[in-house]
Q: What sequence folds into this?
């Protein structure tokens, strides 16, 4: 019978075979998956690494109880140690300049080096010392820090919350970025958007 939910004998098993029957819909899905798999071209090495890295990150997190890089539900704001707020309040805070502690929270959650963070935020090391003493970033630095936090949070979502894997991906050349590293691209707003688009494609299993 062709109705949904009916079954057909598994592999045309002979009468009396104890093997379980396979639902018709499941069999069709299996055949379709095999057909689609045979028609796709092999992904590039860095693209094949993504699902393997995600699986390894998930296994390691479950096996060792590794904490995620940011509290659940806080998103990019959690990476900066900032509480949830309305869009208008947050924009006003960025325009005033975020507290220097936001930069320190970002470093703590991501374990990026100061050199990498300063490159992302366009903050010379000598200026970093002055900002630490003043206790606050300027509006432009604050805006770039939010951009960096948003990008790193997207990487954490792709790699199941594993900061080590996300950090490694950030510094690895990517074919989807013309062989440049995401860290190099993310130093500008335009480049950061390209990295975000690449992450979105990888999240949905699209070969970059």
A:
């Amino acid at each position: 019978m062709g109705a949904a939910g009916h079954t057909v004998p598994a592999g045309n098993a002979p009468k009396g075979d104890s093997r379980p029957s396979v639902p018709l819909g499941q069999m069709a899905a299996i055949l379709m998956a095999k057909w689609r798999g045979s028609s796709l071209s092999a992904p590039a090495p860095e693209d094949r690494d993504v699902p393997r890295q995600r699986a390894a990150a998930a296994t390691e997190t479950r096996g060792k109880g590794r904490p995620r890089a940011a509290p659940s539900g806080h998103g990019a704001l959690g990476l900066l140690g900032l509480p949830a707020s309305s869009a208008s309040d947050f924009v006003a805070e960025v325009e005033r300049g975020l507290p220097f502690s936001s930069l320190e929270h970002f470093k703590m959650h991501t374990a990026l080096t100061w050199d990498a963070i300063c490159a992302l935020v366009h903050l010379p090391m000598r200026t970093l010392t002055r900002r630490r003493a003043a206790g606050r970033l300027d509006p432009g630095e604050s805006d770039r820090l939010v951009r960096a936090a948003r990008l790193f949070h997207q990487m954490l979502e792709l790699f199941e919350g594993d900061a080590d894997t996300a950090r490694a991906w950030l510094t690895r050349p990517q074919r989807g970025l013309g062989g440049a590293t995401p860290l190099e691209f993310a130093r500008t707003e335009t480049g950061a958007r390209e990295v975000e688009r690449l992450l979105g494609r990888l999240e949905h299993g699209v070969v970059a």
